[in-house]
Each structure stands twice: as structure tokens, then as C-alpha cells.
Amino acid sequence: MLIVFDLDDTLFHSSDQMRYETRWQDVKNITPFTGVHEFLRTFPARKILLTWETDQGLQDEKINTLGIRHFFEEVIICSSNQEKKECLARIKQKYSREEICVVGDRIDAEIQFGNELGMKTVRLQYGKYREMMPQHVFQQAHHTISQFSQLRGLLE
Ligand SMILES: [Mg+2]
Predict the structure, then answer these.
(1) Fewer CB under 10 Å: which end of the chain, C or N?
(2) Rounded CA gap, 100 and 11, in Å?
(3) Helix (H, G, I), strand (E, B), or coil: what is residue 147?
(4) Does the 2-155 domain belong in CATH 3.30.70.250?
(5) For 40-60, how does the pLDDT look when each residue is reduced to its tens digit (9 = 90+)?
(6) pLDDT tens-place string over residues 67-84
């Protein structure tokens, strides 16, 4: 299995720990959700981090503060949300022998793209986008969890 993780509001509580106006200061103090390090260190699957950035270098800064870079086989930073779909399609080609599972908080982005590409999808319903309702079938995740710590039980 290959797990493709989103970053913001998936591995840490971005919408709570960072404010737009003070983002470069806030990023120095962010902390991962409970269980993230342990999951990434011990769960027997290949792992990729796929995120997009609005400010050059900010995603890298988040990854460094969270101390999670070394857990991933690849860290892919896109320049737009739409580009995420292209990245996922490339991942699917490259890792064609793996069962791919996408874990993220946005049903209108990684969940939708993952579903469109025939991947397994897990929605972490938490943070800024938790109230968002699926607008069509591709926005319906295969599984929904409300805490990161529920991921292990789901995938085992
Ligand atoms: Mg996110």
C-alpha cells in the first residue's frame, strides 16, 4: 500500500495554528496532530506527502517544523490545487503496482481527485473544511474519520 497524505488540516491543525497575517511567524510553532509521528514511523506502508503552496517556501517550513520530512519517500509541492490532480495521476503511473490510498481534508481537492483516479480515499473531517458537503459522487470519500488517530484502525 502507498498512502498519499495532504499536509494542512491533515497532519496538523493548520486552520487553528496559523493565521494568514502572521503565517511566517506562526509556522515556527506548529505541532502535528496526536499520533502523526508514531503512525508515519511505524505503519507498514509507503508514504508520500503531496501539498500545494500559496507562498514560496512556506510548505517546506511547515514540514521542517513538524519534523516529518524523513518519513516520506517523496515530498511533492505543487503550485496550485489543480496541479495536485496531475501529481496524483503521475503517482498512479509511477507506483502502478501499489494500492494507493489518499488521505486529506478537502473533498473538493485531494478526495475528489483521488476518487476520479480510482484510488481509495479517506477524509479527515476536521478543520476549516469539515462542514463541506459533497456536491457529487466523486466528492464522497470511501471512509471518513474525525481524528487522525483513527487512521490506523481503518487501514489495518
Ligand atoms: Mg488540507
Answers:
(1) C
(2) 18
(3) coil
(4) no
(5) 999 999 999 999 998 999 999
(6) 999 999 999 999 988 899
**Gap between the Cα atoms of 32 and 38, Å rounded:** 11
Burial class (CB in 10 A: 0-12, 13-18, 19+), 145: middle
pLDDT over threshold 90, residue 37: yes
| All cell numbers assigned to 6 | 495532504
Q: Where are the domains of the chain?
A: 2-155
Instruction: Report CA(32)–ligand 1 centroid distance (Å).
Output: 13
Radius of gyration of the chain (CA): 14
Give me the residues near ligand 1 (ion), CB cutoff below 5 Å.
6, 8-9, 105
Q: How far is the CA of 15 from the centre of ligand 1 (A)?
A: 9
Torsion of CA 9, 75, 23, 133, to 10 degrees: -30
CB-based contacts of 129, cutoff 8 Å, min separation 6:
9, 105, 106, 107, 108
Ligand 1 centroid – CA 21 distance (Å)? 19
To the question of pTM greater than 0.70 for the whole model, the response is yes
Q: How far is the CA of 58 from the centre of ligand 1 (A)?
A: 14
Ligand 1 center–CA 93 separation, angstroms: 23
Do 52 and 82 contact (CB within 8 A), yes or no? no
